Amino acid sequence: MGIRGTARSLFRGAEEFDLTSGSIGKPLFFLSLPIVVTNLFQTAYNLADTFWLGQYSTDALAAISFAFPMVFLLISFGMGISVAGSVLVAQFTGAGEPRKAEYAASQTVTFAAIVSVVLGVVGYFGVDTFLGLIGASDTVLPLAVSYLEVISLGLLFMFGFFVFVALMRGYGDTITPMLVMFGSVALNIVIDPFLIFGWTVVENAPLVGTVAFPELGIQGAAIATVFSRGLGLIVGLAIMFRGNRGVQIHLRDMAPDFSYLPRLVRIGLPASLEGGGRALSMNLLLVIVAFFPDTVVAAYGIGTRVFSVIFLPAIAVARGVETMTGQNMGADKPDRAASAAKLAASVLFGVLTAAGILVWFTAAPIADLFTTDPAVVGITEQFLRYVALTFGFIGITRAYTGSFRGAGKTLTAAVISVATLGVIRFPIAWVASGPLAEAGIWVAFAISNVAGAVIAFLWYRRGSWREKDLTNSQPPQEKPRIETPADGD
Questions:
Q1: 212 vs 341, higher pLDDT
Q2: Domain for residue 331, yes or no?
Q3: Terminus of the chain with fewer CB atoms < 10 Å: N or C?
Q4: Is residue 472 situated within a structural domain?
Q5: Using CA atoms, how far apart are residues 403 and 426, in angstroms rounded to an integer?
């Protein structure tokens, strides 16, 4: 039995269940489970870098703490297009319009490539100034810059892979992206330490001689990530062009259609603002964190990396709810979409609360996995314990904002995110970090997690997301003006 056969015995693909009829829990589970695994592989990129750079030096670990939010910011500004593509594909699939889904996917790939190149150029020339503004120290700044310059040059490959995952998910296929991600991550983990530390092999045999590769440090971690993502993108494009798994793309549909761009922008721009708001919040918090010693910066980086693992189920289920909502809105079944969101919120609250309790008791051993510096371990332990018991509220927020996005109400999801992170978390951290030192930042995380869940729940109950604008139109090959399946609030 090959890899795909093994996966088939554990997971179920889109052809084995209907997202618009029958039970809700089972298809949501089988849709979300591969996303959990895919996101786990995704996080493995960051964790591998964090682990190896933690062994390399504390300065390198602090530098990656500054670099990751900047990477997230660059990707988030372009990520809205992939969200728009996913929503369009989901709603057209639910409405039984596969040709329109293919056209939407093809245009998404084209405009995503254009945006990623522009953002990569901006990132490459702007990282030095940006990192200086948010307070990177003289020892950390050049390390973070060298990492981000490589990432910026490879942003097309990184962002392109995310688009592949999003389009396949909109169709309902979450298994294929999981398998591609596995291969990409495995490659990254293998080459990461060699590129960071370098290697030298000396043999006496005359045909072997001396083999050496230079120590690249933090830049080596960036090269490993870009290279492995690039190979993943190539595989993903081959799958979509072939079209026997998930949505298919066509060269004839990929010439930029600027009359179609407004449709992507109306749905995608708020999603970009949501992702950008999250990234900007992380960077603004770094301005506060930078007032403290590098040990606190390193602890902040470790803590946020741990959160990225803990919240994998929430992110995955939210993506599953997004797809279920999209397809059910396309099929004119908003009540079924609401039931999926409610079920997801309840389950995630219970699962993440249990995870938070576990993290509270094991905070010190978790921190010890990433660094040998006892001061960093102690601060990380404090960070994890302050936030751990509010993990369940993150699950509620993610479930409902996922349903908003699937309904095309990406502006609503963006407003909730910006309010939670920019209006609540950042001001509290700014004020509380004075009398409470770094603990004030940790308190801000906990309070904003609870507040975000309350806001998302109450807004969802208003029911404005049930409105939709799905219009029948001519097939793409007849040069239609395809109407937007769903607009933002």
A1: 341
A2: yes
A3: N
A4: no
A5: 26
